[in-house]
Write a structure and sequence with these properties.
748 residues, mainly beta, 8% helix
């Protein structure tokens, strides 16, 4: 190896950029010598194709896709529409803090956008050098690139930009009365920490947020808020709101907007709608050389620039828009804490740092947020930097948490904004903390303190394995409990001959572990070997007791005593066929489970309702089960069933106060009698009570689906006083709660 080779390898391996290759001494290789045509927006498709040519190690150890590169053009106020949620203010201001003292953060906010830019470009430089020396020099096909001339040119350009005013923004651093009605509400994991859903009621009106397919327009999708006023099982008024209209979005020949509604709240006499809006850009037939690789931008539409939106309306069948809030990224989860602050968690993905072409192109690497049409870049001091900086081949991924004050009726205001590197993963929230759990082989844990609308990361930790969902986590009596499944792999070296060998890994099984930790994620206690060789299917914490379901062939339901946090102990292990994917306390001594039915050998056959007796955690037993087969033969044909509850627990109506359980079922029938094959699709909402240790079917509402199947399926059911209301995007149906007989309906 010659001296030049050794020098190059040393530069590539060094954790620090050598002085002779620092940003102050050299020009970024791509900006001037690369093709002059700018990549305005890189599609997910193209970016994934590029990513496929090289390994991508993701922040926080999870795999991510690129949601598209941000707009490369710097902000132009003349092009921004003040009515659009995508209009951007070039100057960002930090949110005003509450009078309360902010907790100390474990992460350090950036001093300026320039600091973030330099970290990204320093990281990208190593990648560019690797491409430059190993994949050929696209700059003059030699080693005579004039770094000094180019870097001097950029510094001159930046100085002119500063003179012209292009500066670095941000571098300076209870629900209302429920009236007289009794009605169902979304189940909240933590008391008074409110969770969203697609259907809500206040006893006077029922509200649904939904995506609807326009059958007349090639099944194009649009998002709506549907409202029906009710009175004793009768519909007295209705309204439909097209959600895109509230966002002031204007399409063009080059791009359009895609509005996708997610969930909603009723809070403080306001209707709070959450969703995402993306700018969809039209592709062009073109080829570009970028960072040593050839990309093909083919015709068609591709999406970029996704933001979460919150539209707030007045209640009733004549809703008025109060205001909007937006923040960058794809929607993950949301909660409202007892003080009336709504916290929204989103994941913002950008391209690799080499896509960041200019320091003042903040839209390439700085997320944005805003209220009522304004859009501001998140202040630098509210962007938490990774302690070790960015590593090579690391995608730029932010978790963004925004606070919205809903405590004052008729007003929308931002309380705080926080962004830090890494994917958010599963979200668990209490009145005082948000917990994020992200990862697979190892789960990274982050605790974010919530103090009067302020958002502060206060602890980080990790455990081996992965969590199933939010119910795998619990905060109780000053401790954090988390249940994980940990897959085990054995490594071995196999000799091929005397001079060569090959390494391989073999899956050796799973272990399920319950960790008890203090609030700083220091391990206090641990219980391993729970259902060894199986995987966790559901978890339910009840005070100092945990109930964990694992599955491989049978469904062991474990009751675990955590009264001594240092020494969790299994109290009982009860085995039945199948497994419960969701569990919820029905009443004292009874635990309701919904899940999958299976044979004794573990073959899945359908879905089921089960009621467990957990009055004595030392002696668990099941009282009754109702099973629904996925498939069965009928009259020379076949019948199949499925349910949305299998992947969304909120599709279940679980109301012990009314002794009522309901679930939506879609039934497909194929009959082949007399050689005449026919198909039928039916949507059913079935209702059960639990009496004297048995499930009792109260009845069902059903309808045959036609070409409008996508809009007609039953999604949810709610009750108000003595009536139940079954909800689909095309129709609301009312029925008597005792007999499940239809009393009225309204179509949308």
């Amino acid at each position: 190896m010659n001296s030049n080779d050794e020098r190059i390898r040393d530069m590539l391996d060094s954790p620090e950029i050598p002085q002779e290759l620092s940003p102050e001494r050299i020009r970024e290789m791509l900006d001037e010598k690369a093709p002059k045509k700018k990549r305005k927006n890189i599609s997910k498709t193209v970016t994934r194709a590029v990513a496929g040519t090289a390994a991508c190690a993701v922040i926080a150890g999870t795999s991510v896709y690129f949601a598209g590169q941000r707009n490369n053009n710097k902000f132009d106020e003349t092009e921004a529409s003040s009515n659009s949620i995508f209009s951007v203010k070039p100057e960002a201001s930090a949110s005003e803090d509450s009078d309360s003292e902010r907790p100390d953060s474990i992460l350090q906010g950036a001093e300026s956008y320039r600091q973030i830019y330099n970290l990204l470009r320093s990281k990208a430089l190593k990648e560019d050098l690797y491409s430059f020396f190993n994949f050929g020099n696209k700059y003059n096909n030699g080693y005579d690139y004039d770094y000094a001339t180019d870097i001097a040119a950029e510094e001159t350009a930046m100085a002119k930009d500063d003179e012209n005013g292009i500066i670095q923004p941000g571098d300076t651093a209870a629900d209302a009365s429920k009236g007289e009605h009794n009605f169902s509400e979304t189940y909240n994991q933590e008391e008074n920490v409110l969770e969203a859903d697609i259907v809500k009621t206040d006893g006077d009106c029922i509200y649904l947020v939904t995506q609807k397919a326009d059958i007349q327009d090639d099944y194009s999708w649009d998002s709506y808020l549907e409202i029906a006023q009710v009175n004793s099982g009768k519909f007295t008024d209705s309204a439909v709101i097209r959600l895109a209209d509230a966002l002031g979005l204007e399409d063009s020949d080059d791009f359009m907007h895609d509005v996708s509604v997610r969930e909603m709240y009723l809070y403080n006499d306001m209707v709070v709608v959450l969703g995402t809006v993306s700018q969809i850009y039209k592709g062009v037939h073109d080829f570009e050389i970028y960072n040593g690789m050839c990309d093909c931008l083919c015709g068609g539409w591709y999406d970029s620039d996704t933001s979460v939106f919150v539209s707030v309306y007045t209640k009733g069948t004549d809703p008025k828009l109060i205001g909007t809030y937006t923040q960058d990224g794809d929607f993950n989860d949301v909660r409202i804490t007892p003080d009336g602050t709504m916290y929204i968690v989103s994941d913002y993905y950008s391209g690799q740092p080499s896509y960041v072409t200019k320091e003042y192109n903040y839209t390439e690497y700085i997320p944005e947020y805003g209220v009522n049409g304004s859009r501001e870049f998140i202040p630098a001091e509210r962007i938490m930097l990774p302690p070790g900086g960015f590593t090579p081949n690391e995608a730029l991924c932010y978790t963004i948490i925004g606070g919205v004050d809903l405590s004052e009726n008729g007003k929308v205001a931002n309380t705080d904004i926080l962004s830090f590197t890494g994917n958010s993963g599963s979200v668990y929230c209490t009145a005082e903390n948000i917990y994020l759990a992200c990862g697979y082989d190892e789960t990274k844990l982050t605790r974010i303190a919530l103090t009067n609308g302020m958002i502060t990361p206060v602890a980080e930790g990790s455990v081996e394995g992965y969590v199933k969902d939010q119910f795998s986590m619990s905060e109780y009596d000053g401790y954090f409990r988390i249940a994980v499944t940990n897959e085990k792999w054995d490594e071995r070296i196999e000799e091929i001959d005397e001079s060569s060998s090959v390494a391989s890994t073999t899956f050796s099984g799973t272990d399920n572990i319950l960790y008890v930790m203090d609030m700083d994620f220091n391990e206090v206690g641990k219980l391993a070997g729970i259902g060894k060789g199986e995987t966790i299917k559901s978890v339910s914490f009840s005070g100092s007791t945990a109930y964990i379901v694992t599955f491989r062939q049978t469904d062991p339901l474990f009751s675990i005593d955590i009264s001594d946090p240092t020494s969790p102990k299994i109290l009982d292990e009860f085995k039945v066929t199948g497994f419960s994917s969701y569990m919820q306390q029905w009443q004292d001594g009874l635990l309701f489970g919904f899940g999958t039915s299976a044979t004794e050998t573990g073959s899945v056959t359908g879905f089921k309702l089960t009621m467990f007796d957990n009055f004595d955690p030392n002696s668990l037993r099941d009282l009754d089960t109702v099973e629904f087969d996925y498939w069965e033969k009928i009259n020379g044909g076949s019948l199949s069933r499925d349910t949305e509850a299998s992947y969304d627990r909120k599709a279940l109506l679980i109301a012990p106060e009314k002794n009522l359980i309901g679930l939506p079922i879609t039934i497909y029938t194929n009959s082949n009698q007399y050689g005449d094959e026919s198909h039928k699709e039916e949507s059913v909402f079935a209702f059960y009570a639990f009496e004297d240790g048995k499930f009792v079917k109260l009845g069902e509402l059903s309808k045959t689906l036609d070409d409008y199947t996508i809009n007609g399926k039953f999604r949810r059911a709610v009750y108000i006083d003595d009536h139940v209301y079954v909800i689909s995007a095309s129709e609301f149906i009312a029925a008597d709660i005792a007999t499940i007989t239809k009393t009225d309906s309204v179509s949308f």
